[in-house]
Fold this sequence. Notes:
Blueprint: H1 3-21, H2 30-50, H3 65-80, H4 84-101
Helix pairs in contact: 1-2, 1-4, 2-4, 3-4
Amino acid sequence: MKRDAHLxxxxxxxxxxxxxxxxSHSEITGYAFIYAFIAAISGSIIPDILEPPTNWTHRGLFxxxxxxxxxxxVFLLTALMKLYIVSSFFLGYASHLLADATTKAGLPD
Length: 109
């Protein structure tokens, strides 16, 4: 999947998460929103920075089902602890892996 697609999916996931976390838009304002957005975008492209997509076999540890489980768990824990910026990063990372899981190559174990 191309970087633009990962950025779009990460952005959509971030806005959905932000809305579900604060539907009245009263808690999340200003710098926290901006930093969390940057964290989500960074998380959505970091797997391809760690393992550059040189060919279709580039998916190793950082693109694996094991890392998806870890990032999903860390996202849930940080979201429950109301660590908005940190949870946004892990949401971005998990959205990248979920998007890659839908491709023909999928995710390795």
